Every structure is written in C-alpha cells, then in structure tokens.
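Recap quiz, item 2
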Amino acid sequence: MQLRDIVSNPYLTRGEELLGIIYKLRMVSAEQLSVIMGISKKYVFQLKSDLNKEGEMVLTHYNTQRGARRVPFSPEYKLGPRMYSLGPSGRAIVEAIVGHPVYLKKLTGRQKVHYYGVNDILVRTLQHLIKEEGGEKDSMAQLQAWDRLQWLNSQEAVEIINQAWTPILENRKKKEEKETKQDLIHPDSRIVLDGQGFWLEYDNGTEQIGEPDSEPDSEGKVTTIYDKMWRYLLTLIPIENHDPIIWVTPSPIRRDNMKHTWEKVKEESSYKTYPEMYFCTPGEEQTIFFKHKLATQRCLELSETY
DNA sequence: CATATTGGAACGGAAAGATT
DNA sequence: AATCTTTCCGTTCCAATATG
C-alpha cells in the first residue's frame, strides 16, 4: 500500500487518511496536507484537533528555523511552518491501515526542512497534474491526477532497488550480500509520472560540495554529493535501471556545483552509458518531468506509425 | 436530514527580541 | 543569563454552509 492508495480511499475516514499520509511522508506541513488531501488548510486543522482529543495522534514540531541558510519555504513565512509527525496513539490506527507493524522513529530538527523540501516536489507535481485534469475544486480531477502519479517514500524506493538486486546477490556469500546492500543508494523518494519513473534527491546543504552532507541518510551515514553520485552508478547500472535522477536544491550555486561534480564523476569512471541526472532548484523539476513526458509521447507516436 | 467541510474570532505555545 | 514582551503560526471552539 502506497501513498495514493491512502489518499481518498473510500474505506478510510478523513482522520485515518490524515494519519496514513503523515506516516507515509514521515513529516508534513498542514498546507502540504491540504493539497494532498484536496481539502482546505482549515479542515486539516480541524481533523488534527479532533484526532488529538483521542490521544497523541499527531505531533507538532514547531517552526523550523529560517536563518541565513537557504530554505525551501515560501517567502510569506517569516519563520517556518509547523511540521506534523505521527504520535504514539496514531500508531495502531496506521498499522491497521497499512497492515504491517509501524515504528515511530525520532526526528531531528534539520529533518523538518528536508522533509518539507521533499514533500513540496510532490505537492507541485500534484498541483500541476490537477490543473492538467481541469480544476482544483473538481474531485474528479484529483482522482485522475492520482491515477497518473505514484509517490514512494525513501523506504519504499529502497525496497524496489533491493528487489532488483536480489537475483544478482543470490550467488554471493551472505556477508558480501549484506555489505553490497549497505552500499546501495537510498533515494529520498521515487516518483512515477504517467509510467515514467524518477529517483529524487533533495538537498538542503551548504554550497560546499566536498563537505560532508549535513543530512545523514537513513542509516545515519554521513555522505558527500560526490559519494552519492558514485553510489547511484554502482546501484543502478548493474540492475539496468534507466530512470533519471533528479537533484533538487534551493541554492542555485549548489545546483551548479552539483552539475560540475557529476561531470567529474563521469570523467573518473568508465562506464559505457550513464543514467541521466538533472539538477534543479525547487520548481524547475516540473520542466524535466514535462519534457520527459513529451519525449516518451513522441516515441509512442513514432512507433504507432509503423 | 445527517454528515462533511469551511469560516470567524478569541486564545495559546514556542521562539525571537528586548530589557535588566 | 535570566526574565519579560512581542511576534509568528497556528489552535480551539462553535456556528454556518455545503453536499449527498
């Protein structure tokens, strides 16, 4: 069960839907929830308030700092939005929805900004699709948009990669298998748009590329961009996955630095082909998604003429 | 009609800023 | 550094409206 199976699921109440989405996204702002659920921000507040009358369902993480550092929030915010995460009382409800045990991981301060940035890629894409399907208040448009969109969180993206690696690892020793699996990349998210998959990396770090990434990955490892790019190659090339990788960062300087780092990685390696990598500031990724869509459409049209 | 959703206005928690 | 004050960003209560 993935995000889109929770959104507008007729078997769930709005409250359950809210908890399910918070679980899938780990941390999310009220505004983002309102777009994802297709309701007003006000109603999100109402649902949260009602839920918390039954226990600690939704936890609030107060305003993320908005200092000198570049941050993905809209300029209307002087501080940051509050972020919600799943509270202890919500756990059992979410377990009933997804059908497996759920663990509440501790979330640190910097992760708030990170999740906000990752979620916003989803929010922008969803809004784009809803517009294409003909309207914001139209619930039909919402459903059709979700028909065209899949969103997998980091853990779900890793599961896909692990599955693809399983046949390769079968003949290897257990220890080696474990080591290889640990070296595989952990994308921040995977999005599938009209059948085209993309791996997503959201980066909120400083302009210095060589510096260790300030955001440790899910295993607590501290990595550099350079390192991550190598891991993408080592992960995707053996399983012949050709989905593009989209890097999103709020800093244009960092975006350009990443581009250079990628050129360097390509020079230092010797593969025949490379996955496509794109480097964007928030919002620019929509052009990539759209361009890709047109490209695949043209291919289809061409093949149909034969 | 019942339930789902939104609106209005007073209220509150946390962080930033000011003052001692 | 400790305490007070202000600001930000919601939160809450409850009534009004929309929707099936």
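Chain A has a mean pLDDT of 89.
Residues 14, 39-40, 42-43, 46, 60, 62-63, 65, 79 of chain A lie near DNA strand B (CB under 10 Å from a C1').
End of item.
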